[in-house]
Amino acid sequence: MTDNHNSADLSREVARRRTFAIISHPDAGKTTLTEKLLLYGNAIHLAGSVRARRNQRSATSDWMEMERERGISITSTVLQFPYEGYIINLLDTPGHQDFSEDTYRTLTAADSAVMVLDAAKGVEPQTRKLFEVCSKRGLPIFTLINKMDRPAMDPLELLDEIETVLGMRAVPMNWPIGDGDSFMGVYDRATEEVHLYDRTARNQTISPEYITTLDDPRIAERLSDYQFEDLHVNIGLLDEMMTFDHDDLLAGRQTAVYFGSALTNFGIQLFLNDFVKLAPAPAMYSSDAGPIRPIDDEFSGFVFKIQANMNPRHRDSVAFVRVCSGKFERNMTVNHPSSGRTIRLPRPYTFFAEERAVVDEAYPGDIIGLPSSHSFGIGDTLSEGRKFSFAPIPRFAPEHFARLVNVDIGKQKNFLKGLHQLETEGAMQIFYEADAMRRDPILAVVGVLQFEVVQARLESEYNVETRLQRLPHSLARWVEGPEEQIELLPWRYGLVRAQDRDGALVGLFNSEHELSYYEGKYPDLSFKQTPD
Ligand code: G4P
Questions:
Q1: What is the rounded CA–CA span in Å between residue 397 and residue 476?
Q2: CA atoms in the 13 A half-sphere facing the CB of 208
Q3: What is the pTM of this model?
Q4: CA quadruple 250, 255, 256, 259: dihedral positive or negative?
Q5: Parallel, antiparallel, or unpaired: how do β-strands 17-24 and 86-91 relate?
Q6: How far is residue 101's CA from residue 447's CA, in Å, rounded to a whole number?
Q7: Which residue's CA is the nearest one to ligand 1's atom 25?
Q8: Relative to the CA of 32, which ligand 1 atom is closest?
Q9: d(CA 392, CA 405)
Q10: What is the pLDDT of residues 3-34, one digit of tens each?
Q11: Residue 468 is part of a domain; what is its CATH number?
């Protein structure tokens, strides 16, 4: 095979990859949409199985609830399926009522995001947080306004809310025809065609679709005079006001907005067809050796997630790697700068719908799972040939803190081992109090549910019982500056003086207000959100 041939292959494979994540507030319909995308991608034949599996076991505790969530997250960290000549990699962003850094980190492996909003609720808090992460990374964002089959907010009001709350132009690509019970389909602005749908039994199969025009009598029949007129006025308005610009979408200045209903399948295929055409192919990533382009010959990738003990009986651990450049081949030997070693990769996995299988090759945008004997850490670079490291995955400032007490001191070794593993997975950060009398670790997390996850996993996987003492603090800052000024901070009165695992000084503060007071009082000190 010639080099030219190989690089043409690589370019073609890169160009047809679409790697994205769905972001949403719980209950907006992320799981339902995921399933419907699989249904339309022919990866499953009946919708309902993913949700059913998630609900299979009845929850008896929050931990069980987490496990249920893990039940789906484990098998579906990434779902890969072909669609119309494209290869789609859909990354799961575990979104419970709560956050973890894991969710944020997954977004570093995506090239675009689909934001699902509930049509009756608009932009909700969790969506906003996730949106901010996407926008910091410059990810193009598509918006699906879901649940149009239920009473919804006015579409123009929804667009307005996206613009004011999220600060980017919201350009509707289609327009809903009716809402609630009268929602019958959408008008596609690009083709000026109307897509009407019928519901199917339990919404499990692809909905029959009729392509027609705005003057189809069925529309006038089923809408009230007022709704009918409103529809025409709105569509007229859109053409005057809102123009879609692909470059603006790719630069994050615009979001392309679609209306639909994941439950009843209305508008989902239309969305998917547009998405594969408009979403970007894999992007380049920065590294300490300059930008790494997907079409660079040599394979490279980075670990964005580690999932340990997926099967408690085997104590296995899988590192999920986003392929960033070149072609990955099974049995390849790669550099692993963080251990200073070279590693052979004999059993990489890929993920199709709900199954995992050994993969022989993978391309930029794909995610591979590497079984590891705990040797990988979050953010690790793997590269063939040239040695370099990708820019570190940003850390997210923890907002909740608690001391974790090991109840049975005889199990201290297991306790430390478990904590180390969970920290490697990025489940939480660990601080130690500078005061030598208190050696109980302080867990620092982004979302409070993470506390329970850590405790429950220590108990079930390491047989260690722990007690949690929540702290009232809400901010951690890495404090640097002249020692005598650091000493003046009121460590004994409310602030906690702690160290991270590298021994750097971390102060725990009670509020933004308190922090800004000390920032003003001690201008020579710096209070950083993350370590250097
Ligand atoms: P999530 O992953 O974002 O948390 O949301 P999920 O898909 O689990 O959906 C949350 C609820 O919203 C589910 O109802 C789901 O059926 C419903 N839903 C999702 N999309 C639509 C839609 O387009 N229209 C309507 N009407 N409902 C939708 P549930 O009552 O919690 O569960 P179930 O009884 O349906 O299993």
A1: 7
A2: 5
A3: 0.85
A4: positive
A5: parallel
A6: 8
A7: 147
A8: 7
A9: 31
A10: 677 889 999 999 999 999 999 888 899 888 98
A11: 3.30.70.3280
